[in-house]
Design goal:
Elements (H helix, E strand, L loop, with lengths): L2 H31 L20 H9 L2 H32 L5 H10 L5 H14 L6 H5 L6 H12 L3 H9 L4 H12 L1 H16 L3 H6 L8 H11 L4 H33 L4
Helix pairs in contact: 1-13, 2-13, 3-7, 3-10, 3-12, 4-7, 10-13, 12-13
Protein name: ABC transporter permease subunit
Main location: membrane
Family: Belongs to the binding-protein-dependent transport system permease family.
């Protein structure tokens, strides 16, 4: 290690500590404030002087918050499973199969990353209305399955696959579907685990499309539930923070469970073309 690297390493470590603390502090403040009574929730203290769990009891008894959590979990889980299946098939075809227009199709898919969600919101609403998908689980799930980022990341991952494994399977008489299902998919577990976190987190936090596509309380997802709770109890931040803490806990657990796979998948996928 050179002298320059020895001098740079403590500075980078200190910077990482500062950035980590800045990222963790809002979550920690939210969790501790959710344990405060209403009259002290905005006192600015990180450690509550008085701890109470009445805020969480109130959230689960006064509104159907458990139903909101189930709706978000069901919708996010179905979208994640369907997206991983279809995206992996599309990415494998774009990475390995030779057919006319392959590069044009990939560029068209990749170009959709440049289109922001508000641009397609009204056309998507009109299509969903014509198909009778509004105010239903299908309306929440089907439009959210396609994601160009997932196809792009999986394609880059498959481009780095050693062709010798697939060629050996072809010699043994395996077709493209058998190779995909029995060889490619099991070897894709690291990147699929990372995309599981990305897709589930994105759909768990979805707000705009569920707000547009649903009107029934039975289909309300957790983010809409928190928003309506905030409107109803605008000054009761202890209840709002308790609801937000409950909604954040599953995502934090999911992230910490798969954080190693996320880092490994990003390192191994690369940008090979």
């Amino acid at each position: 290690m050179t002298a320059e690297n020895r001098m740079r390493r403590p500075a980078l470590t200190a910077l990482a500590i500062v950035l980590s603390a800045a990222s963790v502090f809002p979550v920690l403040w939210m969790a501790t404030s959710s344990l405060k009574p209403r009259d002290t929730v905005t006192d600015g203290r990180l450690i509550p002087r008085e701890v109470t769990f009445d805020n969480f009891v109130y959230v689960f008894t006064e509104v159907p918050f458990a139903r909101y959590l189930w709706n978000s979990f069901f919708v996010s889980a179905v979208i994640t499973v369907a997206a991983l299946l279809f995206h992996s098939m599309a990415a494998y075809a774009l990475a390995r199969l030779r057919f006319p227009g392959r590069e044009a199709i990939f560029l068209s898919i990749f170009a959709t990353l440049l289109v922001s969600a508000p641009v397609v919101l009204i056309p998507l609403f009109l299509v969903a209305r014509e198909l009778g998908l509004l105010d239903s689980y299908a309306g929440l799930i089907i439009p959210a399955i396609f994601n160009a980022f997932g196809i792009f990341l999986l394609r880059q991952f498959y481009l780095a696959f050693p062709r010798e494994i697939e060629e050996a399977a072809i010699v043994d008489g395996a077709g493209h579907w058998r190779i995909y299902w029995s060889i490619v998919l099991p070897m894709s577990r690291p990147i699929l685990a990372a995309l599981t976190v990305f897709f589930f987190l994105a759909n768990w936090n979805a707000f705009v499309w569920p707000l547009v596509a649903t009107s029934s309380e039975e289909l309300t997802v957790v983010q809409l539930g928190i928003a309506s709770f905030q409107t109803q109890y605008a000054s009761s931040w202890n209840y709002i923070l308790a609801a937000a803490t409950v909604a954040a806990l599953p995502m934090l657990a999911l992230f910490f469970a798969f954080q190693r796979q996320i880092v490994e998948s990003i390192k191994t996928s690369g940008l090979k073309s």
